[in-house]
Write a structure and sequence with these properties.
With 247 residues, the chain is an alpha/beta fold. It has a single domain, classed as Glycoside hydrolase/deacetylase (TIM Barrel, Alpha-Beta Barrel), CATH 3.20.20. The chain contains 8 helices and 9 strands. Strands 1, 2, 3, 4, 5, 6, 7, 8 and 9 form a 9-stranded mixed beta sheet that branches. Strand 6 and strand 7 form a beta hairpin. The longest helix is centred in the middle third of the chain and has 19 residues. The radius of gyration is 17 Å and the shape is globular. The two termini are 15 Å apart.
């Protein structure tokens, strides 16, 4: 059985994009007292097709600076927008109920997913000057095509809502739900506050906490995020996703 000091805390900021630059800055400030630079940024190359990361731009320079500080950089889809037609009933329900049209990799074919992974990876690695640390699908939603493309991609890590794994080998590296918040409706906001309060008490081996740009626009969510990180960082070792590969 692990002790409290053995247990990991992994932090991530999702939807890092020029579109949300000010919100990302606010989230960095919010997390810094608890995790410093030991966090992951999930970067969208061209959010919804009209917020591209342009090499040489001020945002690209900032992204490289974050990477040089030791912040992990994950490819987070390509457009973050779901434009697929879902034939499978379960996928249609997941696309409608679990995200607001942002499950980009849920309905992609293996070929289309592979192209977006390769192009996104090439762009980010050119910008940051090193390899990306992994891949996380928007809304943590993967279809069979995306999973197959990931297995071919040689990405070190991938994550969904309930686990972290090695795409190349299929080896599970961490298990347990991510603590995250939602603000799309009042019901989702209230339920995410309750879920965070409960999950931060669970003695998981690896506790993952993911924040999104809209979170910092709601005082109740900001308070919950601060409390969650404060409690978790007191009882856990703040780590990086790459620590899971060494375990």
């Amino acid at each position: 059985m692990s002790t409290a000091s053995d247990r990991l805390l992994l932090a991530s900021i999702h939807d890092v994009s020029p579109r949300f630059e000010s919100e990302v800055d606010r989230l960095i400030e919010l997390l810094a007292p608890h995790v410093g630079d030991r966090l992951a940024m999930l970067v969208v190359p061209n959010h919804w097709g009209d917020a591209p990361i342009v090499p040489g731009s001020p945002f690209a320079t900032r992204l490289r600076g974050w990477a040089e500080r030791g912040i992990e950089i994950f490819l987070h889809g390509y457009f973050h927008r779901d434009q697929a037609s879902h034939r499978d009933t379960a996928d249609r329900l997941r696309a409608r109920l679990m995200t607001a049209g942002e499950g980009e990799f849920l309905g992609l074919s293996r070929e289309d997913a592979a192209v977006r992974i390769a192009e996104g990876r090439m762009l980010l690695e050119d910008v940051i000057g090193r390899a990306v640390d992994g891949f996380v699908a928007p809304a943590w939603l993967y279809g069979s095509g995306a999973r197959a493309a990931l297995a071919d991609s040689a990405m070190p890590l991938a994550e969904d809502h309930f686990r972290v794994w090695s795409p190349a080998t299929g080896r599970q590296l961490a298990r347990g739900p991510v603590i995250t918040w939602a603000s799309r409706t009042r019901l989702r906001l209230a339920s995410s506050l309750l879920a965070a309060a409960a999950l931060r008490q669970v003695p998981l081996e690896v506790l993952r906490i993911g924040v999104h740009p809209p979170d910092c626009r709601h005082s109740a969510l900001v308070a919950s995020i601060e409390k969650t990180f404060a409690k978790a960082s007191m009882k856990r070792r703040v780590g990086r996703y790459s620590d899971l590969l060494a375990a």
